[in-house]
């Protein structure tokens, strides 16, 4: 084993990602999850809703929830995630759900898995999504009570301009094919909203080696890709998804620092 490979040997380490909806995990830190799994870490995912509120289609909420639950399982498999738990909190209502109930589920996942690192949304919620901000607050609250037993906590943010680059590339591909330009990226019409108010990262991870798997995982979330820029990306475009940003909360750092670009 070369020194570089030894530096990224994460055998015996555990990472838990906590997000709000199916697809959050793939777009936000799919490369990190895959890289940690590649290094031998046990990677787990807690998704707090089944995503029944979006997108706005004729699909009944219960049917959409079931489909999106299947989608997140398939995406997680591609990323090397070995443990997936999806809870039944109401999509779109996390800020108004009893905080103690949400925190109970987060605390239970941490107690069961004993992760070295927990990753969740940054304070900006990627683009000020209320559910995302609520998850950020609830995870931070739980970890803050754990004192010396707390895992290293990282907030994932979107590199400013990254989603704009995806949107512009997809628009060019659609126009070259004589098709209608995409309208959105995962339901958000303004690609510049992603990461516009993100805190500067303390950790930048180059995930170009995992970018094709990240794109493949995003494609598994097919219910979200109607008129979507991501549906126009080819494998040649995957490198646009090849940088991920994280902000360390506090001073307790974790093994993912070894992935820093």
CATH structural fold name:
Rossmann fold
* End-to-end separation: 21 Å
Structural Rg: 17 Å
Report on the biggest sheet.
7 strands, mixed
Strand order of the largest sheet: 3-2-1-4-5-7-6
Helix-strand string: HEHEHEHEHHEHEHE
- How many beta strands in the DSSP annotation? 7
CATH architectural arrangement:
3-Layer(aba) Sandwich
The CATH homologous superfamily name equals LmbE-like
- What is the 3D form? globular
Multimer state: single chain
Fraction in beta strands: 15-25%
- Structural domain count: 1
Average of pLDDT = 95
Q: Provide the structure class.
A: alpha/beta
Q: Helical stretch count?
A: 8
Are there runs of 5+ residues with pLDDT below 50, and where?
none
CATH class: Alpha Beta
Helix content: 25-40%
Molecular structure report:
This protein has 261 residues and is α/β, with parallel strands linked by helices. The chain has one domain: LmbE-like (Rossmann fold). 38% of the residues lie in helices and 16% in strands. Strands 3-2-1-4-5-7-6 form a 7-stranded mixed beta sheet, sandwiched between helices.
Give a short synopsis of this structure.
This protein is an alpha/beta fold. The chain has helices spanning 3-7, 24-38, 61-79, 99-113, 125-128, 130-144, 162-176, 211-220, and strands spanning 14-19, 42-49, 83-89, 117-121, 152-157, 203-206, 243-249. The protein has a single domain (3-259), classed as Rossmann fold, CATH 3.40.50.
Descriptive labels:
261 residues, 8 helices, 38% helix
